[in-house]
Design a protein that fits this description.
The protein is of the alpha/beta class and about 300 residues long. The protein contains nine helices and nine strands. Helix 6 packs antiparallel against helix 8. The two termini are about 30 Å apart.
């Protein structure tokens, strides 16, 4: 173990759409977690590794805290709170636009108090509020919980994120490198492919549909093009809960599915650094959110 080298485990926690995944991607400077302006975008714990000369931070992004309505959403909630156990630091993310402690944030604070973990409050989206309102919000939360630090940030612009990293490192113990320096996530390539396809569906589809979809990669093989260039041949299935939703996902003359597939392929080629031949099918799997055989893949 290197002298004065710090390392440890950190979990992000917060309500849905508060910006945890955007913050994770910002800190790591890689596309680790998918982002979309839809509730419950993150469904499972996603781990990322921030490597620097004097420290290594292993960060877990978690599903947003919400009121569960299905077995899937119950599992997501379990995953979020389980991820807070046995970590060195919790980063509790809230929105600067909040005027008070809402029900979801109150539930998180209650959990933090019972666990007595070291906790940093990160106030996101500070570019949307005046300084006076921000100071008032800081006081409201500081009166409720004794945070190790309170850090105002903007996950989209990166403002304040260096300060957040500094505060995290302060709380970490001296320790070893748990991962090699070239690793930045524990996700498999197959998992990242599935998430990228789901992200594009979230971005393009109507509000009521994204909650009922999930993606499975059925084939992931390398091959050669006619010009002898390396190519990834990927077959994926986009599952939905209703036959009527299937028609919307495919779209008139297949236009929506083509849009999702083309945008996915563009991002996949950037991620993989090679050409991609992507084929996506849409199938109906009714009530899959209640089936343990499927839901278990989202467990931590």
């Amino acid at each position: 173990m290197e002298e004065n080298f710090k390392s440890g485990f950190v979990s992000f926690v917060g309500r849905t759409n508060v910006g945890k995944s955007t913050l994770l991607n910002c800190l790591i400077q890689e596309k680790i977690a998918i982002t979309a302006n839809k509730p419950q975008t993150t469904r499972t714990a996603i781990k990322a590794i921030l490597n620097e000369k004097h420290y290594q931070i292993i960060i877990t992004d978690t599903p947003g805290i919400h009121k569960p309505k299905t077995r899937l959403s119950e599992t997501m909630l379990e995953t979020a709170f389980t991820s807070l156990q046995d970590v060195d630091v919790v980063v509790f993310l809230i929105e600067a636009t909040s005027k008070e402690i809402g029900k979801g944030d109150a539930k998180i604070l209650e959990k933090l108090k019972s666990m007595k973990q070291k906790c940093i409050l990160a106030i996101n989206k500070i570019d949307l509020v005046e300084k006076e309102k921000l100071l008032n919000l800081i006081k409201i939360y500081s009166d409720e919980y004794d945070f190790e630090a309170v850090v105002p940030i903007s996950a989209t612009s990166g403002q304040g994120t260096d300060s957040l990293i500094q505060e995290i490192v302060k709380q970490l113990p001296n320790g070893p490198k748990y991962y090699s320096e070239d690793e930045y996530t524990d996700q498999t390539t197959r998992q990242m492919v599935e998430e990228i396809i789901r992200e594009k569906a979230l971005q393009f589809l109507q509000d009521e549909i994204p909650h009922g979809i999930y993606v499975e990669v059925e084939k992931f093989k390398t091959g050669k093009t006619m010009k002898n260039e390396k190519i990834f041949n990927i077959d994926a299935v986009l599952y939905t809960v209703k036959e009527s939703h299937k028609g919307i996902i495919i779209g008139k003359s297949g236009n929506m599915l083509k849009r999702i597939s083309t945008s996915s392929r563009y991002d996949l080629e950037k991620m993989l650094g090679e050409k991609v031949n992507l084929k996506v099918w849409v199938k109906v799997r009714e009530n899959w959110q209640e089936k343990e055989s499927i839901v278990k893949k989202f467990k931590m």
